[in-house]
Amino acid sequence: MSQPFVSVLVSSYNYAHYLGKALDSVLAQSYAQFELIVVDDGSTDHSLALARAVALRDGRVRVLTHADGGNHGLAATMRLGLAHCRGEYVAFLESDDIWHADCLRERVETVRRTGADIVLNDIFPLFMPGAAVSWYLGYVPRVMRWHAARSHDGRDAYTAQTAFLLENRIPTFSCAMIAAPLLRGLSLQPPVPHWLDWWLWTQAAAQARFAYVPRALTGWRQHGTSLHRAISPGVYLADYARMGRAQRRIHLRTLLRRLHWGWAIFLCLPSTLRIGVRLALPLFRSGPRRVLHMLRERLRPTRRPREETSVPLPPGHKARSRQA
């Protein structure tokens, strides 16, 4: 096999029902210079057998497991996969998500045009029963509009250090691709284990140039078992404070050197005030009634039909029947 430009890294744990669709969407890419690495994190369903069956019929696929076959969490699973990646860039795909057929091609073209370290693209949702629809609609379109504005609708690379101090502006690993040398230089030991994505991006933002593809090329599955739905308000507030302290260690000196006084002061505020700023901003964007509705829906999922719903799939993605 020739040297791949992109290593696609899939961390798999007990999503056999969706994994086949995820892997098929990678193997159907119009861009061919990639390898696909699936790391199983001790799944107890048939995810591992499914991944191995795919690897048997396509030489671009490699399947890895931890030495003891156990469950070690996302950070350890990502470290294992990264150690085997040969590409110049690493593209993540969560095992319950899918890609448009042109996803890698458009990302690679954007990297070559802009020289960016990180490239991300817009998202289309796949809503499952219990999905926090209002939360999604209040978050994803807003951060994607921000990336579109910073990039002049995808034409230019841009920096984003201060933006990631307040919140994670890359909604899902599945919409992002990062230069492998940059990724290998980041810490994979987050202060908050379930915020590994924000931890990686906030580190990378201190030195990286971003680029944005203004097309919905990633299908992000939203359902009641998604990790972000399982966090109580009290735990969220404590986690946000812990993340802020870690960000201060990474960013404060650089912010002072670049004369970002306001952000330097923000990082030095007590955690309760930082959280207050974070929670107050949606009030100005959406108003208190909409914010309360989004919080209520996220914390107490509404019952929805059993069938999966989504926005129409972009051209180039072939719908498949759901796996048994």
Automatic annotation (TrEMBL):
Residues 303-324 are annotated as: Disordered. SUPFAM superfamilies: Nucleotide-diphospho-sugar transferases. Residues 7-124 form the Glycosyltransferase 2-like domain. This is Glycosyltransferase family 2 protein. It comes from Candidatus Desulfovibrio intestinavium.
